[in-house]
Amino acid sequence: MAGATIFSPSYQHSLISPNSNIIPWVSSVSFAEKLSILEAIVKVPTYAVAGFTHRKLIYVTTHEGVRSLWLLDIKSGYKKKIAEGIWSVGDIIPRSPYVLYTKDVMRGREQHRAFIYNVRNDETIEVESMPPQRIGGSAFDGNLFAVSGATQKSLLIWKINVHGEAEIVYDTNKAIFVTSIEKHIVGGIGFLSGDPKAMEMFFFDMKTQEFRVTTPKEGSTNKAPRIKNGKALFATSALGNDRLLLYDIKTDHICDVNLRFPDYNPDKYPQILSYDWLPDGRIWHIAEREGRSKVFVDGKLANLPEGYPVNVVMGDNKLYVTWSSLAKPTRILAVDIKNESIEEVLADDLPEEIRSSLGDIRFIRYRSFDGLEIPAIVVESKKFGKPGPTIVYVHGGPFAHIADSWSIMITSLVALGFHVIAPNYRGSTGYGEEFRRLIIGDPGGGELMDIVHANKWVKESGLADKIAIMGYSYGGYMTLLATGRHPDIWDAGVAGAAVADWEEMYELSDAMFRNFIEVLFAGKRELYKERSPITYVKNVKVPLCIIQPQNDTRTPLKPILNYVTRLMEYQKTFELHVIPDMGHAIVRMDDAIKILYPAIIFLESKLKQQ
């Protein structure tokens, strides 16, 4: 379905009623109307740029209700769908007609096939000689693709030519992610030194089979090398806040990046989100500060609205930028390099009735148990006064964060009358490498207390009367752990795709996710049981809503079923929703509704009962 859901007259009336800001509005909205609100939010199309080649913009959109790959002819305006249900898109080189994309071919189990689409002749090749596997990174230089994949036992680098012929060129037991290729040199990152707090770059020579590991400073975190003319552009924490540096692959020499314009000051931005070379040799990068990001081209600040740009490509002297905010769904903006004018190339907005329900959006900081300041975003709902029902929304990852960027989950909660606080607990990205590393070796420890203190903040601030905790993936894990270890401070919990038992999850994981767990715990396997929610089932006091994809291979169903069995043994109150034929990631937008609708109905019954 393209565009937003058509609203029924009763739904429109409920939104524009003069009394819509008081409690009876929320109580009087029917289940059907709640579903209509969710559909209106979930089905607003999003657009994200993937590349530019042959005067065609390649982009990913959900405008038909599923993540799909499309092209837009810039000159004629002609649009064409390339593939639907896609997982990822590789590098797109302006001089090359080839686009590599991947699809999950096992109903959400993240067993991916690679496909190569030719923009010139509209033909697609399936890479049949590469069996389905978890694909974690890819790169393209115009002639060869390099892909990093994971099986149950191994982590691999594949070489694929433009005819779809693939072969394994490297096999390891360490987590590696391909990010760049030039001729016979493959570059990437991985946990290669044995230090769980560090990430090194690697450069693999497919001719000599040399696998070189490099870092500007032992113990530093280094990001995604991007190779051009024998030099790799990368970001590193070696100098404190993220810095861009250049690595000469032939001479093994590292030097500063010289940017022409002075707008970018690295001391003001703790994290660099993304970066690359433009076709003309200039460098663009996106730097982040306090939940918002900025685009710089050769050091010059691009003229973009406040929000959260995440990616840039160049075509026909314009920058095409993926941009969003908490109030505006993800869209593609074009910035004219000469006159700095901005136009929306592909964009849709929330219906005004829903957008107007979003109240104040605030960036705050509160102190945790040890005095550490925790950044958080607070979004108030105009559909309920203060104090009112409030959700402590916990992001996944854990190496992620909530920013001023589009969030279906947060928008849905606020539109249906819940205030939201989203803490960026220790371990979150966006606030510097030192802050991110605080979780390593201590998952389920300090960051759990950060979330407990978010609960304290909303009570003391006068925002909340009743409080639920809700999250998906790592956020679901935090929900189950928080309600088991701190059972007296919540009124309810909603856990989606949660970790219930680290020991069992480790045994069920493939090589990539076993590596992830080992890094997160810094090898402390003795903590697996102590930090698992299943250990604390007996303590749970509040009702739980557990929502679990059937085919999830990151946080599998089996440990959740064991957790639910324990809940039954101790006669706890809960509801369980297993979503058939869905994996961990949301590819089809109907799956978002399957997650959100039972969560909303549950929260309404537990937080808004008079």
Describe this structure as you would to a colleague.
- The chain is 20% helix and 36% strand.
- With 610 residues, it is α+β, with helices and mostly antiparallel strands.
- The strands form eight sheets. An eight-stranded mixed beta sheet has the order 29-30-32-31-33-34-35-36, with helices on both faces. The protein has a four-stranded antiparallel beta sheet with strand order 1-2-3-4, with no helix packed on it. A four-stranded antiparallel beta sheet has the order 5-6-7-8, with no helix packed on it.
- A hairpin with a 6-residue loop joins β2 and β3.
- α3 (31-42) packs antiparallel against α5 and α3 (31-42) packs across α13.
- The longest helix has 19 residues, at 589-607.
- The model is unreliable at 1-27 (pLDDT under 50).
Task: Map the helices and strands.
Elements: H1 9-16, H2 23-28, H3 31-42, E1 47-53, E2 56-61, E3 68-73, E4 79-84, E5 86-89, E6 98-104, E7 112-118, E8 123-126, E9 134-140, E10 144-150, E11 155-161, E12 166-172, E13 176-182, E14 185-190, E15 200-205, E16 211-214, E17 222-228, E18 231-236, E19 243-248, E20 253-256, E21 271-277, E22 283-289, E23 292-297, E24 300-301, E25 311-315, E26 318-323, E27 331-336, E28 342-346, H4 352-355, E29 358-367, E30 373-381, E31 388-394, H5 408-415, E32 419-423, H6 433-437, H7 446-460, E33 464-472, H8 474-485, E34 492-496, H9 502-508, H10 511-520, H11 527-530, E35 544-549, H12 557-569, E36 574-579, H13 589-607
Parallel strand pairs: 31-32, 31-33, 33-34, 34-35, 35-36
Antiparallel strand pairs: 1-2, 2-3, 3-4, 5-6, 6-7, 7-8, 9-10, 10-11, 11-12, 13-14, 14-15, 15-16, 17-18, 18-19, 19-20, 21-22, 22-23, 23-24, 25-26, 26-27, 27-28, 29-30, 30-32
Helix pairs in contact: 3-5, 3-13
